[in-house]
Inverse folding.
């Protein structure tokens, strides 16, 4: 049986694997990269919506701006609509959170099938050895300096391969994670999802009277990722081409989830119960349907000192509400590339081990920080006032902390990783404290029978109160960083107090108030 050697073997040719292959070839043109995919061609997949970290990664790291602008959709941010309790409010009367001008930083709506097909072509032209229709099995990971070994089977032959680095981008198949027993089920945030591609969906930019379009300065609602929000679940609309829109439901399993939703009839019947969403789908044709019974899971390990690693959904997945999936791909691909760079530079074994440990700890921190945005909070999604409160914490925090760090490549700085991992607990404390605060406000609104009171006739500009967008990605002193974080936190606290009917506080709360875990917020 024949034997073939690669410097790097990538398992999976989906979004994560293709982007990683492109990055590795651009960074290390002298290394051989083989990519293995069991399917012969690409297909439509969920995960079409990206946000700003991914946009920066695709543009700045991978040089794909012109391609994405020409062949995909430049996204007009996230957009949220809110309904009455009976789910029968007309779309034009719903309260809304969304942008009124083009976003300052680019993100994209992706036609995943086209993107992956085009990336396969680009990667092959750049020297990646593609092995489509190839099943990889009998993976033998070695803990010494000898190559990893694996076997490959196609329709016509079997052969053996070996590689110095083995990188799993196999998606939810999670081949390496399952082999090494890395998967951690998420028991406190259990979600299910169903989605389909529709043709002839009503264009959101053609809905309603002129006053409705003027509410967003006549910018495009159609190119946004649109969320229709309800207690315990939400419905997405994502355009993936001029003709096709992805529509899906994400729901807590403990809410109203039924297995019948996973069939076309049940899926459509549930959508029909929502007047606004169905008004866009009344004349549409469902092209196909897919589902996941369990969305969220973690991993015990992202990277190994023995020269293997996971990226994308082969590793972990948090929650699709703010479209963070491809952000995690960007981070994991960057960190994997950084680890390979360390080895190529001949760093000491201890230095390499330290970087692996810090990269793992950082990704575990990012996973947990993301999870604390969602755990036990789906029930508040159905209230405009509550989600506005949460959004006006989450959006500026994402820009001020995570996006700004990524744009400066701080996650590739070893001293930054040391500091970030060491100081992670106060950040997690703050997220937990705000989660408790949001639950208190939700309980108060239910108690006063005012949960839905703001759901009609209101509008919030998505970037309201964020006057510092041009400063995102610029270096800051610690004093500048914490001063702005202090302002964001106090602004959220003050808005929560107003919803709770409390008097305005005379003095801002100290930052330590938010960073110290509290039994009640």
């Amino acid at each position: 049986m024949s034997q073939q050697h690669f410097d790097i073997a990538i398992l999976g040719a989906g979004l994560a694997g293709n982007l990683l292959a492109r990055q590795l070839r651009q960074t290390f043109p002298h290394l051989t990269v083989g990519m293995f995919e069991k399917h012969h061609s690409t297909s439509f997949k969920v995960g079409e919506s990206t946000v700003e970290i991914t946009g920066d990664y695709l543009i700045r790291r991978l040089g794909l701006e012109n391609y994405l602008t020409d062949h995909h959709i430049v996204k007009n941010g996230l957009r949220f609509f809110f309904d009455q309790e009976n789910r029968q409010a007309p779309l034009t009367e719903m309260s809304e959170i969304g942008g009124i001008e083009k976003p300052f930083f680019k993100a994209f709506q992706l036609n995943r099938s086209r993107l992956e097909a085009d990336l396969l072509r680009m990667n092959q032209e750049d020297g990646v050895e593609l092995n489509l229709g190839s099943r990889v099995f009998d993976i033998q990971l070695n803990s010494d300096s000898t190559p990893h070994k694996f076997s490959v089977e196609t329709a016509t032959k079997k052969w053996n391969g070996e590689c110095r680095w083995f990188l799993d981008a196999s998606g939810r198949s999670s081949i390496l994670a399952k082999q090494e027993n890395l998967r951690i089920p998420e028991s406190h945030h259990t979600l299910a999802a169903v989605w389909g591609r529709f043709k002839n969906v009503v264009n959101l930019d053609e809905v309603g009277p002129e006053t409705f379009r003027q509410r967003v300065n006549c910018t495009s609602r159609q190119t946004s990722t649109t969320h229709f929000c309800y207690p315990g679940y939400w419905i997405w609309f994502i355009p993936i081409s001029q003709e096709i829109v992805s529509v899906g439901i994400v729901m807590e399993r403990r809410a109203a989830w039924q297995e019948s939703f996973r069939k076309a009839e049940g899926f459509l019947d549930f959508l029909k119960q929502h007047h606004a969403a169905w008004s866009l789908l009344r004349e549409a044709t469902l092209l196909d349907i897919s589902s996941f019974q369990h969305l969220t899971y973690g991993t015990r390990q992202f990277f190994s000192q023995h020269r293997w690693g996971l990226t994308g959904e082969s590793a972990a997945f948090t929650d699709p509400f703010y479209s963070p999936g491809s952000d995690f791909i960007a981070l994991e691909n960057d960190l994997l590339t950084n680890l390979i760079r360390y080895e190529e530079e001949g760093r000491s074994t201890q230095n390499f081990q330290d970087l692996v440990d810090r990269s793992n700890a950082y990704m575990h921190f990012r996973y947990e920080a993301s999870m604390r945005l969602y755990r036990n909070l789906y029930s508040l999604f159905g209230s405009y006032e509550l989600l506005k409160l949460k959004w006006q914490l989450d959006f500026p925090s994402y820009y001020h902390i995570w996006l700004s760090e990524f744009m400066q490549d701080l996650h590739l700085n070893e001293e930054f990783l040391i500091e970030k991992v060491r100081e992670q607990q106060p950040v997690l404390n703050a997220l937990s404290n705000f989660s408790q605060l949001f639950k208190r406000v939700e309980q108060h609104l239910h108690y006063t029978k005012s949960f839905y009171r703001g759901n009609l006739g209101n509008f919030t500009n998505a970037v309201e109160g964020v006057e510092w967008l041009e400063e995102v990605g610029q270096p800051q002193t610690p004093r500048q960083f914490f001063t702005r974080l202090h302002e964001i936190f106090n602004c959220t606290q003050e808005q929560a107090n107003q919803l709770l009917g409390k008097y305005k506080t005379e003095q801002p709360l100290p930052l330590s108030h938010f960073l110290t875990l509290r039994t009640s917020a």
